[in-house]
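Work through what follows:
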Amino acid sequence: MLKTYARWPTENASKYLQQLCKHFGHKVEVSYTPSEGRADLPMGPSVMTADAEALTIEVTAPDAEGLTRAKGVIDSHLKTFAFREGFERMPWADEATTTG
């Protein structure tokens, strides 16, 4: 499994975390609070945390293609939800790590 993460500075992190989870909840299993969330995306789980300063998202997938797809899904939804902030994409870590 491969894993990567991103942290995007925003004062609206909790709002976006909840929007993502509510939206994904129409198709996949999700659980969330205002500060933590998890969405079991088809390519692998996405774990989100929100604090007063930023939204942090960690995605896991079995391969590089799945990781790219997961990041694209999250970026495209946040682009819709956070358009007022000029969101383009999460600043994903350049290197993915391998998990056991």
The longest strand covers residues 2-9. The mean pLDDT is 95.
